[in-house]
Amino acid sequence: MQRKIYLDMHSREEAQRLFWSRFGQRTTEAETIPSRLARGRVTAAPVTARFSSPSFHSAAMDGLAVRAEDTFGASDDTPRTLRIDTGEAVPVNTGYPLPPDKNAVIMIENVLLADDGATGVIRAPVYPWQHVRKVGEDIVATELLFPTGHQLRPADIGALLTGGCATVRVRKRPKVVIIPTGSELVRLEDYPDAPPAGKTIESNATVLAGLAEQAGAEVAITPIISDDFATISRHLQATVASEADLVIINAGSSAGSADYTVRIIEQLGEILVHGITIMPGKPTILGVIDHKPVVGIPGYPVSAIIAMEQLVVPLLARMQGVHVDPPATVQAVLAKDLPSRSGIEEFRRMIVGRIDDRFVAVPLKQGAGAITTLTRANGMLRIAAASEGEIHGREVTIELLVPRPQAERTILCTGSHDLCLDVLGDLLRKQDPAYPLASTHVGSLGGLMALKQGMCHLAGSHLLDPMDGSYNTSYIRKHLAGRDIRAVTLVHREQGFIVPKGNPKNIASIHDLFGEGIRFINRQAGSGTRVLLDYELERHHLDPDAILGYDQDEYTHMAVAVAVLSGKVDTGLGIKSAANALGLDFVPLVEERYDLLLPGELFDTPMIQAVLTVINTADFRQAVEALGGYSTRETGRLVER
Amino acid sequence: MQRKIYLDMHSREEAQRLFWSRFGQRTTEAETIPSRLARGRVTAAPVTARFSSPSFHSAAMDGLAVRAEDTFGASDDTPRTLRIDTGEAVPVNTGYPLPPDKNAVIMIENVLLADDGATGVIRAPVYPWQHVRKVGEDIVATELLFPTGHQLRPADIGALLTGGCATVRVRKRPKVVIIPTGSELVRLEDYPDAPPAGKTIESNATVLAGLAEQAGAEVAITPIISDDFATISRHLQATVASEADLVIINAGSSAGSADYTVRIIEQLGEILVHGITIMPGKPTILGVIDHKPVVGIPGYPVSAIIAMEQLVVPLLARMQGVHVDPPATVQAVLAKDLPSRSGIEEFRRMIVGRIDDRFVAVPLKQGAGAITTLTRANGMLRIAAASEGEIHGREVTIELLVPRPQAERTILCTGSHDLCLDVLGDLLRKQDPAYPLASTHVGSLGGLMALKQGMCHLAGSHLLDPMDGSYNTSYIRKHLAGRDIRAVTLVHREQGFIVPKGNPKNIASIHDLFGEGIRFINRQAGSGTRVLLDYELERHHLDPDAILGYDQDEYTHMAVAVAVLSGKVDTGLGIKSAANALGLDFVPLVEERYDLLLPGELFDTPMIQAVLTVINTADFRQAVEALGGYSTRETGRLVER
Question: What region holds the MoaB/Mog domain (chains A, B) (predicted)?
């Protein structure tokens, strides 16, 4: 196990400066391309018009071309008759050339034409050059149409063509070559049914290519290269010698026994930076071989994307001579404490939504390995290296990953987890694409707290009151006293023991959790399912501590089901739909009610009304029933208070 | 001249409702495509994962895989030795499968390896599942990855591949066919040297295609069709019968004698709307043939773009099931009165910049024919149909055509016009792409007023004080008393009479303006050039009213030069570089100084410093001298106050 830990970590700012100062001033070459194909490209030189537009005096209106002097004196009292038959007035359509002896156009609406069209009567004069588009009114030949460094939009192409520029000098697209490395990687297309044991599907190369293409680059992806020093080295050398303007190796940038990237770049060229104090993204390598930038991008998908966006995308813009603006931001109230290690700049993926007049930011989980933390996020919080984190309720600056209006219309749903929320989110988008439903899971009690603090629009809850068998109402009364909280029943659902197919350990009741060697997985404190388990244990006078795994918990039904599926545990308490989804067996324990709770003051907003509309559709009920383990007999009912 | 004036004009809102309600609910069909090619596409169904990720318990760190239980009790005082040679601890790299009998990973940084690698010593325990990425930690098979209607970004493609989705169901791109019509139209490629007399270069089709492509459509453009009823009708029928989802005819949508579009659509199908109370864009036609939307887009380039963006682009989004957000806006102070006809919703192209802490919006000219009003604009002001206009100094809402930061860094330059400003703007972008220089022209005195009102960053000025021969200083003292205004000399330049090549009318001095039949073109009141002319006339005791054309004016030197070139006039007063640009001759009258004036409080801003840096480069001086008619002997000098 050869190791070379990054000894000289750089901050992001230092790394950017070191890297960009080396390459950032060097733009790509210029090339001449047809203007019709130039949308999105960046001008490499000032563009001047070759033709004037209009290139002749032309009629700006449909009407009669005249000498303005011939119309002077016309009025309601002294209408004037113009001779069309003699050419005193000449009918013209918009855009037609003005006859050489004419200098104005009368709008056809202002002419009373004789039936034979030989004459026209007017009751007002026109002034010279009225309703005439004069030569060069839009564009004068030789004038500057666009300065250097202008990114061409559709209308700009119109100006180029109109100005006689059939071709335009633009910066070449930077050529990026991406080399995926890793003996553990396989292509999904080669294993459509499942990756071989111990193998991982390569996905970063396509993601990095997409980011580079968005930044204006041309991208090639090489085949996957195994973790072999000589092969990678040979391959990298050949790529650098090719037409590439920038080479990306992914991954092997860390410090494992098969992480050759840093040694290879060192051997072929020079390492500028190895290790950046960012998280995710720490094991990034910035190097140079034969004067070309070579970047070792980390293997974890979120690390890869953040390293790419922080270091490479801005460089690609600079290579095209384009200024890079910082991302748009909003100020948002943080829904959770976020401790962070000092000395590391942390990038936390967030879901942002607007509740009343403020934005709320809900952090997603932290792992660099979870691509879904990025696909679900609509914002990013940077916790500065000097900071030890941010605290719940503080106003923080969120960089938006989507247009601001999209963040504004995002529905924040939290509390208890249920698979029906996905059905709801999907049907909601089908009914009205305006409202993305973003759900996070903190358990039923956590949802009540979020409601209390104004941190969510909706909270899923299934809190049983053992005293009277009611759900949620007594908890709302206790924790949200004085607040107008409405509860809408989403579903009734079966809770029970999720067990492997065939139920090999013969779990039949709560007593079986105490069987010899039975490994259990719990749900987190504050979740309705945990409340249910504890209630059932107490009701049967059973000792929780005697359950193997009572102190191990997961946050969702699906995570419990996965623990069972993977053989990590023998059973856990959860909903039937989660067992069904993974083809597991299920031992029912109780049926319970699952409600969506929401603040009364939001009830009449279009956002919430859109949600309630969907819940009351037959489509929703059918889709839910199809999951199994649900009853929709009270779905959509407003719970009486 | 057959006419059918639009009798039933619709408001934009009515037109949108009528049109979209007919087609807006109908999405395009779904198709299955490779996920790798799906960036930017919109999901047509919920996408669920086929594989879990990770698909096996894997090491989250480089290190030793162990049973956590074997590490309990390890501490600084009681270090524990793990046997690697016997398999008690197994070296693993990040991403490697966890051996089946292990349940945790110790980071390699926390292991003291023996030289022979046979053992490792640890000084702290790990807990079960520490540094392990558990099965399904990121994605659980069967879980929802994306709801219907999600537009796929690069990271999303990563989630699709990781989740085992090699293909994805997406909406087909809407197919748009654009039919350019007009006997006056030619293709630039067929006439690279100049359009034939009376002909116009077709450019709208490519612009409309670009807008449709940006909105996700696939676009085909047919050849140009002449203004012939039967030909257009046959062509339109064939196009509708093809695979097109939406057909655009451009133009013939107005009411001229060759405007057949409305009659043809009426004959083949149904007219929903003919004429919308917007300007530009009034003669828009919305129709339906064989259940397909057919749009008659007006011919003026700005009308075409506005009609396309208001009516068609949102429909293309709806066809893909995507929500359309309104454009981003800023509040800005209006730099000029903008009267507007009541009953018409007017779209005014604007240049927006930020001065100190407020945005300022400067209107560009109005004409629907001037594509450059759109290419130069970075914002749009809508004047509501009910409004009679907006007034100078009022705060108005500007829809941004560029990202907000780009508007924030736009330099507003106004006042007098000089060709050197284009050179400055180009070199500025080359030096620092951050700062677009947007210049408008209101004459020197207009520039002083703009400075006074905080409506510009820079104002070009060449106001001669006849008393002492000085430039600008006395005017600043008079009009901007008490204000800290700095003046930086940009150039000295030659003013004189612009005359046709060969000077056929033998203009030699100011006295020749009074020659028999000599047609003159003036500059607007308040321009430095007008001040100069009036001063020269007074000095020679000449009567302005005796000059033919003294009361006709233009706003720029280039417009004067064009008037001479087109034969509209025999001469006008202007700068030599304008004559040079159009290959005209020039009769020098005086040399004058042209300064850039700016508020002292902006002097040290990066924006202004960037401008001053460029002015002081040799590149700038060389480029200016190359235009002819300039001296740079004092260029960049701060004028003493």
Answer: 177-318
